[in-house]
Design brief:
With about 270 residues, the chain is mostly helical. Helix content is about 45%, strand content about 5%. The protein contains ten helices and four strands; from the N terminus they run αααααβαβββαααα. A four-stranded mixed beta sheet has the order 1-2-4-3. Helix 7 packs across helix 8. The termini are close together.
Length: about 270
């Protein structure tokens, strides 16, 4: 299924260039949405290991309608860059580049964090300055055998979700790293930028939310963290969303413009 989608997107983009046209943001949003809609239902239960059977997939095209946070589901967990493709040395370099350091992390957890960083840097064309740690010696990412993850002013804590087994290990979820990093990014300046872009009235409210998951309507901060994770780990769910389609397409446009190389999102559609 992913190969079919990638092939269609490749054909679309090359068709636009073949006609000496630069693919505009609106073109890509419209064309990508049409292609994704034509592919049909994506049955994640049968295609890959699945952790959360409560996801509703029937009658919603290719919108998986995630109930829980994206960190729990196979596609955003894997992200756009395979953790296995990143060496120990590259992981070290990527983590340092954002002025981060890890505490009590396994090598795999460091590679997963690095995969999240690498994808964001692809979208940005380099280091994301608003996402750099501000603590001398590196902003700590602490990995713990506990439940729940949180971003504090002086560190990020990743709870591995010790009650779960196998695929639902949150230290191995790219979307989980992106989600907590997004809180840091938001608190360092991105929250007001996002809300100013998204608001439909005089004030930003839950009417402006993009429901990529049910967790996305928890608070304004969780909304930003979930859609940031979506754009960097499974961007197509912003284009095929059936609950708040216009808001989610608007989110897609925001991040396309916000990142210096936002058009690179096409490599993961």
């Amino acid at each position: 299924m992913k190969r079919i989608i990638s092939l269609f997107i490749f054909i679309i983009v090359n068709h636009l260039y073949a006609n000496d046209l630069n693919p505009s943001l609106n073109d890509v949003v419209v064309e990508s949405t049409e292609v994704l809609s034509s592919v049909g239902s994506v049955n994640q239960v049968n295609s890959e290991p699945f952790c959360c059977p409560e996801v509703l997939t029937e009658n919603y095209g290719s919108d998986p309608r995630y109930i829980y946070s994206l960190k729990n589901y196979p596609t955003p967990r894997k992200g756009c860059i395979a953790e296995s493709s990143i060496s120990t040395e590259e992981a070290d370099e990527l983590i340092r580049s954002q002025n981060f350091r890890t505490e009590n992390a396994t090598q795999k957890e460091r590679r997963v964090l690095a995969a999240a960083i690498k994808r964001v840097q692809q979208l940005n064309g380099g280091v994301l300055e608003v996402g750099k740690g501000k603590i001398p010696g590196g902003f700590p990412w602490q990995y713990r055998d506990s439940n729940g993850s949180v971003q504090y002013h002086d560190h990020i804590e990743i709870g591995r979700n010790i009650a779960a087994k196998g695929e639902n290990h949150h230290g191995h979820s790219v979307a989980q790293q992106l989600h907590e990093w997004a809180h840091l990014i938001g608190n360092q300046g991105a929250y007001p930028q996002f809300q100013a872009f998204m608001k439909s009235g005089s004030e930003y409210s839950d009417k402006d939310y993009c429901m990529v998951s049910n967790y996305a309507d928890n608070t304004t901060g969780e909304q930003f963290a979930e859609v940031f994770a979506a754009f960097a780990s499974e961007p197509r769910i912003l284009l095929n969303n059936s609950r708040t389609p216009e808001n989610c397409k608007k989110v897609f446009r925001f991040f396309w413009q916000w990142f210096n190389k936002g058009e690179q999102v096409q490599t993961c559609l």
